Structures are given as C-alpha cells and as structure tokens.
Amino acid sequence: MNYLGHILVMISIYAMLGGSLNLVAGYTGLPSTCHAAFYGLGAYSTTLLMMSAGLGFFSSLGVSIVVTGLLSLVIALPALRLKGDYFVLATLGFQIIVVALFYNLTNFTGGPNGIPGIPIPRLLGFEFDSVFRYLVLSSIVSACGLFVLWLLINSPFGRLLRAVREDELAAASLGKNVPRLQTLAFAISAGMAAVPGALFAGYIRFIDPTTFTVMESIFILSIVVIGGAGSFWGPIVGAAFMVILPEALRFLELPLAAAANVRQITYGLLLVILMRFRPQGMLGEYKFE
Amino acid sequence: MLLLQLLANGFVIGCNTALLALSFALIYNTTRTFHVAHGATYIASAYACYLFLIQMGWPLIAAMLVAVLVGASLGVAMELVVYAPLARRNASMLVGLLSSLGLYVALVNVVALLFGNETKLLRPGAEASYHFGQVSLSRIQLIEIAAAAIILPIFVILLNLTTWGKIIRAVRDDAPLANLIGINVPAVRVWVFALGSSLAAIAAILTAMDVGVDPQAGMPVLLTAAVALIVGGVGTFEGPVVGGFVLGLLQSLVVWALSVRWSNAVTFAVLIAFMLFRPGGLVGRRLRLEETQ
Fold first, then answer.
1. A289 in a domain, yes or no?
2. Residue B128's CB: how many other CB atoms inside 10 A?
3. Residue B281 has what pLDDT?
4. Would A108 be classed as within a structural domain?
5. Which of A112, A190, B56, B113 has its CA 20 to 30 A from that of A168?
6. Residues A80, A186 contacting (CB under 8 angstroms)
7. Are residues B92 and A78, on separate chains, in Cβ contact within 8 Å?
8. ipTM score for this prediction
9. Which of B184, B55, B193 is nearest to B116 (CA)?
C-alpha cells in the first residue's frame, strides 16, 4: 500500500510540475528549460522559511510561491526578448546558474550536502506523517493548483496566451501587450512550480541540488511534450505515464542499476518517436511549429 | 606563477573547446539543427576508444581511428534516421531540438548501461611532463595543442577557399536557394554531420586521455561548445574558434579569481549577456536582437 501511495504522491507532484510548465510551453509557446530551477527555488525557499523563520508549511508555501514568481523575472525579462533556440539556451543557462547557486551558497543551502531534517507539514495540529496522509495532502494541494490553472487557461487571459502563441504579430496588432502577457505567464508558471517544490521537500524531508538539475528540467519538459502540450489533461496523463513507466519496467526484473538507465532510454526514444510521428503528444493540440 | 600555469591550462582547454565549437558550428550553421545529441557522439567516441584501446588492447592509432569512425557513423546515422525526415517535413527548430534531447538522453544511458557510470581513464599511469619556464604541460596537453594547431587552420582554409567550402557556406546561407541551383542539400547535410562528428570524436578522445571520461560529461561539453559558438558569432566558422579560446581562458581566470565551482555559472552569465547585448558575437556581423531566429 505504501508503494502505491508513494507512486501516487510522485504523480501528484509531477502533474503539478507538468501543468505549470504547460502554461508557458504549451499555451504560450515558450519551451522553457529551467522549470526545475523554479521547482528547486520553491523547495529551498519553503524549507528555509520553515526551518529558519519558523513559519508553518502552508504559510511558507504561500510566501515561496510569491518569491519564486518574482525571482523568475530575473530570467523572464531578458530571455523573453529572445526567440527560438536562443530562448531555450537562455533558460538553460539560468537553470545551470541556479544549480550552481544551490551548490555554492553553502550558508543557506548546505551546498552538496543539502538540507536534512525538514519538518513534517502539519495543519491545525494534524501531522501528515505517513505516506497515505501525505498522499491526501499532496493530491488536494496539487488538485487545487491544477484547478487554478484550469481557471486561468479558460479565462480571457488564457485565450490571449493562445493567441500570442499562434501569432504574436496578430495579437500585438490588436493592441495586446505581448511581452507583458508572456512575462506574466512565465511568472505565474514559475510561482506554481514552487508548489510541487514545497510538496517534494515536505515529503522526502531532505533536499539537495541533484534533484533540480538540467536533466530534471528536460524530464519535466518531456512530461508536457509526451502528454500533450497545450492540453489541460496532457501533462497530467504525461506525469502518470512517466512515473508509472519505470515501475512497469520493474517487472522485467532488470538489475537495479540498469533499471534507471532503461527508464531513461525508454523516455528518450519515446521523445524522438513522438516528435517524428506525433509532435502534439498523446492528447495535445500544439505541435511546436 | 599560478596564474601563468592556469592560463596555459586555459589555453589547452581553449584548443579543445575551439575544436568542439567548430564541430558544433559545422552542423548548427549548415543544418540549423540544435544538435544536443552531439554530446552523445562525444561520449560514444571516447568510450569506443576506451573499448578498443584498454579493453581489447588494440594499438593506439588503430583504436583512435576506429573510435573517430564510430563517432562519424553515429552522427550520420542520427541525421539519416532522425533529422533528415524532420527536415523533409519542414518541422520547426524546436521539434528538432526536442528530438535531439531525446536522442541524447537515450544514447548516454546506453553508454552508461554498457560501461557503468564511473570515470574511465584512457591512459596507463602518469604522463611525462615538459617544463617551459614556469609553466609545465603534460605530453597529452601538448598533443591537444598540436591537434588544434593542425586541424583548425585546415578547416578554416577548406571552408573559405575551396569549392567544397563554398557549397557548405551556400547551404548555410540559404538551403532552399542552394537546392535550386543544383546543390544536393541532403548530401551536404550528411557530409557536415560526418565531419562535425569526427571533429567532436577527436576532441573527445584527446580530452578522455587527459582527464578521463564519464557518461554524463557530454552535456556540459556540448553546452560550452554552443556558448562558444554564440559568443564567437553564429553563422560564421571562425567565430566558434575564437569563442572557444575566449571561453577556455575565461574559465581558467574564474578558477584563479573565484573557484572552479563558479565556472559554469560565469560561462552562462556571459552567454546571456552576449545574447542580449551582442547577439552577432565577437566575430560576426553586428546583429540586432530581432535578427536572431
């Protein structure tokens, strides 16, 4: 039961990560490769607020959403002036710089040793201390986050983002402030990525820089692309698929060391095959064209 | 004294980065493919050399030649199986980039599955070192400098002065137009993938002999090459060479002034600054931001 619960917790975390990236990559057409940086900023800021400022889990989460959203402007403002693969490279650069900061600002982040002993999240005296209890917490928080996302993409704001994605020039000619829309979408998406960051930190109760690397950013982007960019359910299905896939491979009874490699080989090839034959992913509508 | 030694090391790194940046630029400038899987070619050829040289005990020259061939074939295979069909479909650059990321992840893990995750050394025992005043360089470092000193000028001359170079530059400047005047664009693409991948293989083997190789080494190397290309000047073949040396020296200065832990962060901060304020690079024509697509 704990095993199943663990898988569901991870799906809820990755669904929220994929969903928040989808707002930028799928709906606005900006394939950002630094989502793991925001995931990490959310995890670190929540942890530091809980452990140093003594705030509770939920108030820390609230503050860290705002902090991460604001920090994302550091890269959003310059990177959004760039197009195509320059944008991808700029966000990738930001990702690498943030990981270097996690490693090097040892006073705050503990450097490569990470931060152990993160307190268990609690609400009104109720401790989410077992896998099952944590599943309740993470699925409710993620569901709330995804509901906010659903409201956003079905609002006039969401419609504008899709208009910008399809034709920046046309949107601008109708008097829409394209850079402002893109920046706003980027900041909201980054702030939302702080939620799974906090959930991860409270669940594993240990964070270190290796969780938030470039490869994790690529993994999150693949969740969006494989599930279907620009579709609300796409990243949720993508997250479930990508988390369950390695567990399914477990039944092949590979040696433990090989399992991680086989999982990565599978998702790498899947990405190649989908891009060739179905660039909109399983459920998506946007083809990155 | 320490600074001089660090600058010398930076120059050696610069030689390698210049080779890699040129290899990446051959492919990127000509085919407009952001070939992330180039990092996998790099890893695969270093490991191929390890397989033939250390595990199978071949003579050095034979092992290196076959490893370069492995790299070239891998690059060509990726072009034929993955990129060429995408180009025929007129897929966007991002679709190519995402496919390339997938290829990279898959190939690197195949290498890790076959050889394990730990660093492999390609030379037995310590290297002889030579002293020049206050600076000392190992034999393999001198070979790295020699390789760059031979290969880089040859390529710059070939690309600028021969018909063959003219064809590549024509495809780089306007592939549809090149096609119209009878240049076989798909064949040129295969050629640049073969050449670029062999160059990457040479750099990979030399670096692996110097400091060893591990399966995850490809991504940072590839990114440094891409940064060198942008800092030097996208669309040129001299730019990445200049950019490679600038980055190599810059990284050694960062080691001297701060610490090796900051070298990645500084590299990418420089990249972002260049993309914003001088998108044409050091060598390239002055571009406006809007022209970079």
1. no
2. 8
3. 80
4. yes
5. A190
6. yes
7. no
8. 0.86
9. B55
